[in-house]
Amino acid sequence: MFHSRMLRSLGRPSQLWARQARSRLTKIETQIQPNRTLKISANAISGLSKWGPVINVLAGVYIGGLIVSLGSFYFIYHDANSRERIPFELSFQDQMEAVLAINKDDVLEKPRFAVKHYRKLLMHLAKETDPSLDESEYPGFVVPVIDAETLVYHKSNKFSNFYIDLILRYSKALLAKGELDAAIHTLTQVIDNDLIYYKIGDAERLSGCSRLLASVYADPQDRVHTLQRSIDMLSKTYSSIQLNDDYTLQKNTKVSDELISCLNDLAFQLAQIATSPQSKLSKSQRSKQLNESLAIYLSNLQALTTMRESLELRKTNQSHYPLFNVHRENLITQISAIKAHISEILWYEGAKQKAVSWSEEVLKEIYYDNASSARVQPILENVLDNLIQMYTKMRQPQDVERCKELKSEMSSYARGRADQDGFDAWYDALIKRWSGVLYDQGPLGIIVKPLSERFGPEQRIRPLEEFEKEDE
Q: Which residues cross the membrane (predicted)?
């Protein structure tokens, strides 16, 4: 019987081996398979529950810090974008450079520290347009300018306008830094290019930069030519502006703030050339040029006076003058500045009594506005200085003392006034303080600084000069 069982089992060898193999594999898997069961004791659970509030606080601090950081960056970006529209065509890194440059330039009023951001951004944009550009060919503060054809025909209007504004901002920052040659070279690349000057960018801003360029030229004739080019550009851009050949305003023409500023600067340069001791003009040429300057001033004065009368009689309002700010402060200061220059020309031509009358009229008009307008003070100081000199030469000591007394009272009165009021002053103070803390202590400083000052002394916000280097 035993032998028969053994023979039957030997008759099925494959089945026996299969059962043995499965048994060995089961043992190996049992040995290799890790124990996935995690057991936590009751004491450990009790300990973790005690640390729960601490964990929640740490998580809250982390999330709060993240929100404050992102909120701070967005606040700075939104402010910069409201000052200068930043196109989304720029890469994230380029947008960061633009925000830093605009913030340091406009908010912190540190254009010298914005130069490096402007230069880096302009260089990168030029290299994106022309990958073969060699950066070593542009030493110092000189930057390449994107080709005018590319800006006009191959880039969006938003990008082109932003790029031109960026060039102009960089030039102004260079002037603030004292880099006169680099600034002139950069500005002339835009202003001397007809395709860019007449087709791209904000005409008002381009004109403002032309006036800036004219002010730094050494040759008076270059100044006159640049201003005339700016006036011609404005008249071609805005069809409502009508000028005569001698740059006087035609009747019922529209005006803009920038146009009046350009015309006043042109009249001033003509008068300065005529009255300069180094001028080589003959007596008749001097007289002719002074008359041209006087004609421009009188034309501007007539246009602004007519505008003022219409506004005061409520016949017109701001909608009738879309390019000019008809606010009383702007209108009065423009009129007073023109009258002060007319007084100077009349004095030089020998009409002394008329010159004094024009200056006294300005004094009467704006003396008490000095308390509420920052723009009035330099005009008023210039008029009082002129009157003191005029009365001194006319030997009228009582009037000299009167003007000196008015000037001393004006100075002490002006120190107590605020240049800005209301929401604008509050916002400007907030964004300036916010930006200063952000650069000095990082985004978390927005929270840490007020908390530490609540329980301790006030902390000073360090200016950029103390921890950041300029672009050399």
A: 54-77
Asked which of 367, 398, 417 is the last residue of a domain, the reply is 417
Is 193 part of a structural domain of the chain?
Answer: yes
**Cβ atoms of residues 215 and 172 within 8 Å:** no
Average pLDDT on 20-49 reads 54
Whether residue 151 contacts residue 200, with contact meaning beta carbons closer than 8 Å, is answered with yes
Give the C-alpha distances (Å, rounded to integers) separating 302 from 309, 335, 379.
Answer: 11, 9, 19
Number of neighbouring beta carbons within 10 Å of residue 217: 15
Q: What is the pLDDT of residues 270-316, one digit of tens each?
A: 999 999 888 888 888 999 999 999 999 999 999 999 999 999 999 98
- Binned at pLDDT 50, 70 and 90, residue 2 comes out as very low
Distances in Å between the Cα of 156 and the Cα atoms of 5, 162, 187 are 96, 10, 22
Q: Looking at residues 133-144, what average pLDDT do you find?
A: 88
- Region 53-78: mean pLDDT is 71
197 shares a domain with 90: yes
Q: How far apart are CA 267 and CA 293, in angstroms?
A: 4
| pLDDT score, position 466 | 83
Amino acid letter at 151? L
Angle at 72 between CA 68 and CA 78, to 5 degrees: 140
**Each residue's pLDDT tens digit, 386-430:** 999 999 999 999 999 999 999 888 755 544 444 455 567 788 888
Q: How many residues in total does the chain contain? A: 472
Domains: count for the chain: 3
Residue recorded with tokens 């939104």 = 78
Identify the pLDDT of residue 71. Answer: 79
d(CA 8, CA 449): 93
The contacts of residue 354 (CB under 8 Å, 6+ apart) are: 346
Which among 134, 169, 201 is the end of a domain? 201
Which among 152, 255, 265, 160 is positioned nearest to 202, based on CA atoms?
A: 160
Coil/strand/helix, residue 243: strand
What's the CA gap between 449 and 433, in Å, rounded? 11
Cβ atoms 462, 440 nearer than 8 A: yes
223 within a domain of the structure (yes/no) = no
- Hey, what are 127's tokens? 């290299």
Taking residues 434-456, report their average pLDDT: 77
> Which of 296, 272, 406 minimizes the C-alpha distance to 348?
272
374 and 404 housed in the same domain: yes
Instruction: Find, among 261, 202, 252, the residue nearest to 231 by Cα.
Output: 261
